[in-house]
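Sequence design from tokenized structure. All designs in this work follow the same two-part layout: the structure record, then the generated sequence. An example of the structure record is given first.
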């Protein structure tokens, strides 16, 4: 009895310690996701006869080259256009203010007094501009963010060089009789995570390119910023696509009011093509998640882990879904009444024979 209570206390203490270091665990999981993605590329090189060390070197070199090209060719115009976008935000609020005041004059019985409405818009304008500017500055210059990024990169490289060793260390956390089964679940988790990551890359490229071409046809200014934000924010389901449409709608309102409806229609069509045709085709329903489950997971991980939890909510949910299906459903619940069924079957066979 004393041993059980001690074991229970140790279990509670372990959960408490894990909760206190949850941010570090989330960084480790981020490294696992990146290492899984890079390892899939390494395996492609190894299939054509390239040795492991050379395959890793080629993979890292290719990623470094792509990063340099991205920073050199895309980041400077993106920063310039993003700064222009921030400069246009006050003008958008003033344009909206004038439209609302004009609408007030046409419908005086349904809208509040002009003075109160004007005061409200004037108060919201600097606040919104300051929030957007501070968020961009904080995200780009925070020392803590750079430190976390460095930790993730180092852990990713360590796991990529020798993934089998880290896998064996993790498997030792399970009882000896369950390690083979845990290894199978890890393989399924890796496959699901890889399928999700490959599908998300294709989806984000499609969203970014389609949004950029559509906004270019509509002649909405700052196309590069809108296209990149649409592609990157697509990693955050449900919330990301809505957030990516805010700035194009604001700029369209400033440019020509009729473009607002056109931009909303374009984004609606693109998101529906991605959700109902492209995503099921690319992922082949391997990591299909119910929309309510996805949204609930986003709120849970965002509340528990902050912004990084919101970004990683979907891969965390994919891995959790795999373990729940394999351990809870298949290994526990599906076998719950199996001994009784086997016993009843044996008794029935004895009676009939």
């Amino acid at each position: 009895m004393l041993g059980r209570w001690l074991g229970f206390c140790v279990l509670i203490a372990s959960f408490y310690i894990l909760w206190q270091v949850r941010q570090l665990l989330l960084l480790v999981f981020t490294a696992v996701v990146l290492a899984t993605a890079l390892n899939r590329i390494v395996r492609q090189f190894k299939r054509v006869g390239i040795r492991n060390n050379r395959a890793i070197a080629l993979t890292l070199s290719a990623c470094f080259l792509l990063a340099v090209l991205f920073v050199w060719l895309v980041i400077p115009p993106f920063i310039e256009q993003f700064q222009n976008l921030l400069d246009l935000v006050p003008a958008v609020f003033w344009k909206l203010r004038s439209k609302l005041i004009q609408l007030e004059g046409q419908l005086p019985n349904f809208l509040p007094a002009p003075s109160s409405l004007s005061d409200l818009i004037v108060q919201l304008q600097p606040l919104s501009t300051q929030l957007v500017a501070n968020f961009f500055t904080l995200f780009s210059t925070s020392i803590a963010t750079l430190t976390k990024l460095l930790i993730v990169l180092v852990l990713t490289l360590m796991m990529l060089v020798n993934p089998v060793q880290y896998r064996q260390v993790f498997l030792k956390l399970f009882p000896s009789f369950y390690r083979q089964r845990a290894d199978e679940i890890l393989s399924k988790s890796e496959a699901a995570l890889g399928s999700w990551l490959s599908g998300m890359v294709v989806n984000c490229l499609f969203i970014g390119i389609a949004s950029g071409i559509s906004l270019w046809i509509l002649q909405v200014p700052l196309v590069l910023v809108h296209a990149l934000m649409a592609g990157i924010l697509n990693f955050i389901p449900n919330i990301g696509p809505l957030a990516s449409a805010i700035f194009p709608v604001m700029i369209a309102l400033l440019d020509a009011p009729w473009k607002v409806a056109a931009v909303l229609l374009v984004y609606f069509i693109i998101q529906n093509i991605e959700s109902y045709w492209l995503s099921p085709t690319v992922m082949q329903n391997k990591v299909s998640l119910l929309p309510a489950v996805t949204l609930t997971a986003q709120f849970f991980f965002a509340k528990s882990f902050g912004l990084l939890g919101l970004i990683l909510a979907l891969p965390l949910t994919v891995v959790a879904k795999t373990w729940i299906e394999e351990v809870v459903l298949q290994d526990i619940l599906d076998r719950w009444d199996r001994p009784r069924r086997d016993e009843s079957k044996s008794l029935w066979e004895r009676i009939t024979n």
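Residues 110-115, 344-348 have pLDDT under 50 and may be disordered. We note this feature because it recurs in several other targets discussed in the main text.
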